[in-house]
Design a protein that fits this description.
The complex is a heterodimer. Chain A is mainly alpha-helical. Chain A has three domains: about 5-70; about 80-245; about 255-365, no CATH class. Chain A contains 14 helices and no strands. In chain A, helix 8 packs antiparallel against helix 12 (about 300-315) and helix 9 (about 220-255) packs antiparallel against helix 10 (about 260-265). Chain B has a single domain (about 5-115), classed as Winged helix-like DNA-binding domain superfamily/Winged helix DNA-binding domain (Arc Repressor Mutant, subunit A), CATH 1.10.10. The N and C termini of chain B lie far apart (about 65 Å). In chain B, helix 1 crosses helix 2. The radius of gyration of chain B is 24 Å and the shape is elongated. The chains are: A mainly alpha, B alpha+beta. At the A-B interface, helix 2 and helix 3 of A face helix 2, helix 3 and strand 3 of B.
């Protein structure tokens, strides 16, 4: 066998390895002709081209095809459709959560920067002088989560591309406005962990909705309701936080030490705290629904379980260095998140087995 | 209909082609602008097959490799023709508007020139 034949054999083997990304049933049907097409393309590649390795763009196109096939839309095999629905639901739940956070941050921005009253404690007073570039940057950073609301609104109206663009902007713009602390690797890891709960729903949105699985276009009224409810919940939360702050300030003035209590209470109103409460609520809802005959909580439970993973990592990753009440609250949140995650996985898998034993039979011992 | 789908259907108008043959023909038809990657090509073929616009024609084994040929169905040909007519109509309207704009500009230029000539002429 010549050296050239060896090289081609190696290239073919590497192509086949990448094709393993595709579902087995699809590979059984298409692998041979796809390999033939790859090898024809490699044969006609320009001189000097490294012909032992598949080209990056070819690999990316196979990976994209694999994602579309594995996260199927209506008309796909049941397993692929189920995973597709789960990922799409994870995107939707994530967008609803981040739209609530957007309402909360926007409300806090108004309270912190818009009202020149000393209703809030010192810790949340705005940074930078009024009309200074720093102030403008921070106000903008507090308002950028509203891009999640734009994304949710677009998705509800069936505009997947706009929804995806807005979600990516919601991830990137805050990093530009308030650059992450990259001076020490510990800070970088902490920052990366805190970003995960936003990255995962964005990825679910980017991968779950595609040409074969477009988002349904809700009637305008329902879409408005889907958007207004989380925004209103977030605004309400910001008022609660504001009142809490004012009460603590009043208590401190009266000589009652309450700072620790305030910090513990706030930790339930920040992103990770709200994620713990929300996921616990979804777990309870799924458990109740699971017990009702004829109603399946499977896809919602699995979607929420997907979102529980980054929330656990975010909580655990930001815990080092915490002490006292802060550490205790964070530990409690971590316990709530882990328990909710486990409950959601159990409910999800049980519901799936009950709905279609064939879907989980392969994994059963 | 997306541009890759349009070009794949066009590539199959004259004869059935296999995967890489389609990718090559699409590149030729688009003047080298559209390079379909294999994963993308098979994604497009899946969608077109699901719509009933293309179907498998035959299989050949060449140099130990399987080549599956695809052909355009009658339904696919109708869909392609409708899309081609729609695109041609759009293109025609765009050209008409551009000519009109050009004409208006020339007319305006001449009118302005005449106006200036009269204003600058002997009283």
């Amino acid at each position: 066998m010549s050296e050239r034949d060896d090289e081609r054999g190696l290239l073919e083997e590497r192509y086949r390895r990448w094709l393993r990304l595709l579902p087995a049933s699809y590979r059984a049907e298409r692998e041979e002709e796809m390999v033939a097409a790859f090898m024809d393309g490699a044969r006609r590649a320009p001189a000097g081209h490294d012909d032992q390795r598949p080209r990056l763009l070819e690999i990316a196109s196979v990976a994209a095809l694999a994602l579309r096939l594995r996260l199927g839309g209506p008309g796909s095999p049941p397993g692929a459709y189920l995973w597709g629905e789960t990922v799409r639901l994870a995107a939707l739940l994530g967008l609803v959560f981040w739209t609530t956070i957007a309402g909360l941050y926007a409300g806090q921005a108004v309270l912190t920067y818009g009202i020149p009253a000393d209703a809030l404690p010192d810790g949340v007073m705005g940074i930078g002088d009024p009309e200074s570039p720093d102030r403008a940057r921070l106000v903008l950073a507090d308002l950028t989560p509203l891009l999640w609301a734009v994304s949710l609104g677009a998705l509800a109206r069936g505009r997947a591309r706009t929804a995806k663009a807005a979600a990516v902007a919601a991830l990137v713009v805050p990093c530009v406005l308030v650059p992450p602390p990259m001076t020490e690797w510990e800070n970088a890891v902490r920052w990366a962990c805190s970003l995960l709960p936003a990255v995962v729903p964005a990825l679910a949105l980017l991968t779950g909705f595609h040409r074969a699985a477009p988002p349904p276009r809700l009637p305008a009224r329902r879409a408005r309701l889907l958007l207004a409810l989380p925004v209103a919940a977030g605004l309400l939360l910001s008022l609660v936080v504001g009142v809490l702050g004012a009460a603590t300030r009043a208590a401190t003035r009266a000589g009652i030490p309450s700072e620790e209590l305030l910090v513990a209470a706030w930790m339930w109103a920040d992103t990770t705290g709200l994620a713990s409460v929300s996921l616990a609520a979804v777990a309870v809802w799924c458990a109740l629904r699971h017990r009702t005959p004829g109603r399946s909580a499977g896809p919602v439970a699995l979607a929420a379980a997907i979102l529980a993973v980054p929330a656990v990592l975010a909580r655990a990753g930001t815990m080092p260095g915490m002490t006292g009440v802060t550490f205790l609250t964070a530990t409690l949140q971590l316990a709530v998140l882990v328990a909710s995650g486990i409950a959601l996985v159990v409910i999800g898998v049980r519901a799936l087995r009950a709905a279609d034993p064939g879907l989980t039979a392969l994994r059963a011992p | 209909m997306t541009e890759p789908a349009f070009l794949v259907l066009t590539a199959l108008v004259d004869e059935p082609r296999h995967g890489y043959g389609i990718a090559q023909e699409v590149e030729r038809l688009s003047g080298g602008r559209v390079h379909l990657k294999i994963g993308t090509l098979y994604g497009v073929l899946d969608r077109l097959a699901a719509d009933g616009w293309v179907e498998a024609d035959r299989e050949e084994v060449r140099q130990g490799r399987l080549r599956r040929y695809y052909r355009l169905t009658d339904e696919g040909a109708r869909a392609l023709e409708e899309e081609a007519v729609r695109l041609a109509d759009n293109a025609r309207r765009a050209v008409e508007r551009l000519r009109l704009r050009q004409g208006l500009r020339q007319g305006l230029g001449q009118g302005l020139g005449q106006g200036l000539g009269q204003a600058g002429g002997p009283a």
